[in-house]
Amino acid sequence: MNLIPELWRLLKARVQTDRKSTGRSELSQCHYLDAVLLNAPLDQDKLVALADQLQVELEGVPKGKKTTLSLSPQAISNFDAILELLDAADYNRKGKEAICALVLQLLRNLQDEGPLPRTEPKPLM
pTM value? Predict the structure, then answer.
C-alpha cells in the first residue's frame, strides 16, 4: 500500500482513537484500508475524478510511503480492479492518488461521526 505520509499519520491516529473508544486493541490500519477497498467505487470516471480532486486539493500529491499489509482477498481484488480501471483510462501511475483520496474520504466521514462506540460483548448463553 502506498499512501502519502500525512495519511499514514492520520490513519494511525484514528486507529488509536478508536482502540480507546471501543476497548478493542486488535483494531489496526488493515481494518480501515480493507473497508476503504471493499467500499471503493469500481467506476472509472469516479476514480479519475477522485484522483484529480486530490491533486487539486493538495496542489500536487507528495511522494508516498509504501508498506505491506494483510488485506482480505476481496480488498486485494478491488485494489487490482482500481489499478486496471485507472490504467485503462490512461491514468496509469495514479493509483496512489485514487487510493489516498478514498482513504481521506473515509477518515473525513469517520471524523464527522466521532469515535467508534464501545459495544458490550454478547453473552454466550
Answer: 0.91
